[in-house]
Design a protein that fits this description.
By secondary structure, the chain is an all-alpha fold. The protein contains six helices and no strands. It is elongated, with a radius of gyration of 20 Å.
Amino acid sequence: MEALEAHKPKRGRKRTSEGIETRLEAIEEQIAYADPLTRVHLVQERMNLEAELANKEESVDLEALEEGFVEAARSYGERKGITYAAWRAAGVDANTLRRAGVPRTRG
């Protein structure tokens, strides 16, 4: 579920690693001349961009994670009382739930 959330498509244009690097360089140039309040905003932006860059470099095998989910979701959901609607609200794709055998019944 965490991998699904972390790799959910975001709105807008995708930021490239090169674009992030370019912005980090610009921040480094600006930070030396910035007033204290602007500096703290730039520092936070730099931290956010560095974290985003690290996440881009991290490789996650979503297919393998999905297969594991498909194998476990139905029995786990039945034991814990998790409905189809709850899985969907959490962001699980309908096709994945169908493959897992999670029924669309109302509780």
